[in-house]
Every structure is written in C-alpha cells, then in structure tokens.
Amino acid sequence: GDSLAGGLISTGSSGASISNTFTAGFVLNWLLPGMGVVDIGNGLALREQARKVTLKANETLLRILEEVRSSYLEVLTTKEEITVTHSAVTSAREELRIADLRVKYGVGTNLELLSAQKDYFDALSRQAEAIVNYRKSQARLLRDTGTISIASLTTDRRPLRIK
Fold first, then answer.
1. Alpha helices (H) in the chain, listed in sequence order
2. How many whole angstroms separate alpha carbon 15 and alpha carbon 27?
3. How far is CA 50 from the centre of its chain?
C-alpha cells in the first residue's frame, strides 16, 4: 500500500558467504563473501605489487641515468685527452725540428736527435690511443642511450656527433 506497515529482515548463510535480505515494500538483497575482507586483501596485495613494480622501475631508471651520465663524462674526458695529446705532439714535433737543426749545424748530438724522435713517436702513440679511447667512449654512450641497434648498425648512416 501507501504506507510501510512492516518488514522482514532475515539473515541466513549460504555456503561461505552471508546473504542478507530486507523486505519492506521492496526487496534488497546483497551478498558479502567473507564480509569484504578477501576483496580488501586482494586490493592491498595489488597495491603492494604495484609499489614493488614502481620501485623496480625507478631503480632501473636511476641505473640507466647513472650509466648514461658516466658514459657522457667519459666522452668529455677522452675528448680533452685528444686536445692534450695534440699539444704534446706539436711540442714533440718542434723538439724534433730543433734537434735536427742542432745536428745540422754541429751544435747537437745524434743522441739528442734520437731522443727527440722517440719523444715524437711516443706523443703520436699517445694521441692515437686517445683517439681510440674517444671512439670507444662514444660507442659506449650510444649503447647506454639505446641509440645502437642492429638496424642502426646495418644502415648506411653517418655516426652521431657529440658536441
């Protein structure tokens, strides 16, 4: 009718879940398996798993950033080595030129000339090593940034320039 004259509340259990029914002019049934504890536990477990995944992703990102930064600093250092060794080659070349002139004019000895030749050769060797180390550090930086791949190695492209 128009008025709510009475109602029926029954609580019964059906298996592992509790079923509640309230009747008062309408019927409302709800089912709470485990009183919601299982769902809350699953939600908390998923949240914890998401935190672990996020933490692992952050650790991986930090490791990658550290590797890239380290590689970049190594590129800068080896590039400076090339500059330093270039200066050493220039100096050794001048030393060799002066030693050669001294021998020609009878003021220097062959031992001075041989020593100047050895210094010049050593300077050239150090410069070649510096160039090789620079190229290696460039390749390491490209690998750490993910630029090097099978496709990039097999296509005919110019190498990446680092300024």
1. 37-104, 110-145, 150-154
2. 21
3. 22
**Cα(147)–Cα(161) distance, integer angstroms:** 12
What is the identity of the amino acid at 159?
Answer: P
Residues 6+ apart with CB under 8 A from 129: 85
Other CB atoms within a 10 A radius of the CB of residue 24 amount to 12
The sheet carrying 8-14 orders its strands as 8-14, 17-23, 27-33
**How does pLDDT run across 135-146, given as a tens digit for each residue?**
999 989 988 888
Q: Kindly report the length of the chain.
A: 163
Q: Phi/psi at 80 (nearest 5 deg)? A: -65, -35
Per-position b or e across 50-81, b if 16+ CB within 10 A of its CB: eeeeeeeeeeeeeeeeeebeebbebbeebbeb
Paired strand residues for 11 = 20
Contacts of 144 (CB under 8 A, 6+ apart): 64, 67, 68, 71
Q: What is the pLDDT of residues 99-137, one digit of tens each?
A: 999 999 999 899 999 999 999 999 999 999 999 999 999
Strands 8-14 and 27-33: unpaired
